[in-house]
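Write out the 3D structure for:
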Amino acid sequence: MLGIERHQIRRHTATLPVRAALGASMLYHGVGKLKGEGPKKTGQMMQQLGFEKGEGWAKAAGIAEAFAGASALLGFLTRPAALAVLATQAVAIAKVHAKNGYDISKGGFEYNLALMGIALFMLIDGPGRYSLHEAIERGVEGKGLRRVRQHMRPNLLVRAIHALQ
């Protein structure tokens, strides 16, 4: 039994650097698109790529990326965050990087693909035990017999928290 517990601890601990790497990258890029000249400069680039109203799209991408980054770092709403990463990076590959091939040093999609791989992991596995989501869930469900009862017959709040994972 102790071996299984160690395995679970390692598994849940392993999600921390994964979430941190994705979260830091996405938050950095998202905030960059939103502050200062970011919306204007990114908007101009997006218009050159064929997006009408490029500044609006730049802000939308910035919000999606900043949300994904913050969510990954906190471990809350990680599955919607993962979907945001998959969407923004798929567009980045299709519109910017695919024509340059795989190699990042040539403007390729290597980095975008790595971010998408991490996002897929989070989409499948969720935030892990060491996350804001888990802390909220434990707080709502309580401990001991109360927690067992909540797992058997979850109330609306508990069901909503499970759905947000």
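Residues 2-34 form the longest helix (33 residues).
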